[in-house]
Task: structure prediction
Amino acid sequence: MIETETPNLLYDSMFMKACRCEPTDYTPIWLMRQAGRYMKEYRDIREKVPFLDLCKNAQLAAEVMITAVERIGVDAAIIFSDILLILQPMGMDLEYIKNEGPVLHNPIRSFDQIRNLREVDPAESLSFVFDVVRSTRAMLQPDIPLIGFAGAPFTVASYMIEGGSSKNYENTKTLMYSEPRAWHDLMSLISSATAKYLNGQVNAGAQALQLFDSWVGCLSPSDYREFVLPYTKSVIDAIVDGTPLIHFGTGTAMLLELMKEAGGQIIGLDFRVELKQAWDRLGQVAVQGNLDPCVLYADYSEIEKRAKHILDQTKGRNGHIFNLGHGILPTMSVDKVAALVDYVHNQSSKL
Amino acid sequence: MIETETPNLLYDSMFMKACRCEPTDYTPIWLMRQAGRYMKEYRDIREKVPFLDLCKNAQLAAEVMITAVERIGVDAAIIFSDILLILQPMGMDLEYIKNEGPVLHNPIRSFDQIRNLREVDPAESLSFVFDVVRSTRAMLQPDIPLIGFAGAPFTVASYMIEGGSSKNYENTKTLMYSEPRAWHDLMSLISSATAKYLNGQVNAGAQALQLFDSWVGCLSPSDYREFVLPYTKSVIDAIVDGTPLIHFGTGTAMLLELMKEAGGQIIGLDFRVELKQAWDRLGQVAVQGNLDPCVLYADYSEIEKRAKHILDQTKGRNGHIFNLGHGILPTMSVDKVAALVDYVHNQSSKL
Result:
């Protein structure tokens, strides 16, 4: 591993300590989509480079993330990548359409299509992501941990089946309810690829991982238990020992205990739950979250008031990583994002 | 009131008994969007009549609903209408665009715009909705209660501000967080109009009401308490005594207790919560819900299994109205919907 020269700086960073529920001098913070359209430097690059090309350009992907980390002063980096990259080697026809987001031109609707999907060997077909990990790790300050990530099996499956984002997830649920064997095969295929993919990122130099189950909140607890939990658990169980994993989803208010059961040293909370109430329910585990991103549209004093409300709920406990409840939006202000990071550092160091 | 000749048939209907948490011979059921695109008779009419025209044609609106009630055999009707009709007399430029849904061409983004909105006198500007209530009540079987409805203040405000449906509700939250006085004025204006509007529907012959806070699940509990609860409560407190009100929202897992505090004899549950768990948390109140609409894409045996799972959770309690967790989708099968209604009647009469 690349960081062998500086093991203590990373291991002893506030972010890694919080992942392990150890005391920290201040609350570590990073923000989902911290490298993205809200930042002029990013928009300038994206005018010249399409999204997929950027994900496949290790040097540029590293630069984009490091620029963001330095500009806003967060405590962790995450690789610049996308949860759907794993779909191309499976045989999915993925395209990022301007102003529309990802589209899969051959959505999965039948058992036959699932049988024709290819098993993914990330070392071969996703090695460009490992290059992004390596180059980001190499260029990043030696005390800033790097987070690798993947989509969780449900969220990845729902994109494959719907062909893009969805309002009601009707095709996904139809397959799930009507063809449970096909669902099983699809989820098994994704899970096995995802575990290898995440471990490959750890081997390439990532200190922590995040599993994004962004759309799982469309399910009832009993559906989650039956159709999702075993697969997510199989991914997390396969992660190499000693690498903390953040298990994140949105709309998961009723799924939190089940997500903890599936695994992850840190549970990611969205903004729909009160942090303290959710953490009390979860018990002994670290948590990440959970400021409503839209608070960043308010003025500075309101942002501080609401960030303080979250910090106040963590008093007396170790293991809180500050983050938004979902990603930064393109129209947000870089100055306000940076001010939030500063405020969290200052305010939490007083606690 | 029109139903004075047959007060007992309505008062003693299974639906009204369940609203009052009284024992019933079987579980009453109706379904959100039970008159809609999934039904050929409806599609045939809509080929000739635009949506807004249909809402304003009392005879046709009544026919559409009664056709649906008779075809699928539900225990309650709801007026054929829309939660956004209240916006036209306020001064909003509302259009229903084919395949896109409602659009407001003059979305509210400033205090000045709010000051220029008009107070609504429903007796004058929404009398066509009361005509729909009267004609539906007159044509409906005398033992089938009729539900009137309105959008809850938050959901109506979010449409006004976003100009249509939204993913992140960023404009709504920006106004809420940045201009709380403007938010207060807007919510007060909507609340006062909504209370009059709902009471007008009761006076025209509706036996029960539903308040749709469809999008309120994008808020945290503390935001709900501060920015929504007082206004929803003011609407519900103003409803004429003796008319049960169903207080419905989606994504409300963490808001249920606060919704109960705001009011409503029946709390509507979406499919993201386990019914029993939610009802236990709510305590003494009736509940409505909560089958995932997408279950209707599965085969008959799976639909029955999942309907039974819901009925089983209501054993030993009075006050359950069966419904979906959200509306019927256009591509669903009328036969399966009718079969669900039959199954709920038969299965629950055995309990």
Notes: Chain A has a mean pLDDT of 96. The longest helix of chain A spans residues 180-203. The longest strand of chain A covers residues 146-151. Residues 253 and 273 of chain A are 6 Å apart (CA to CA).
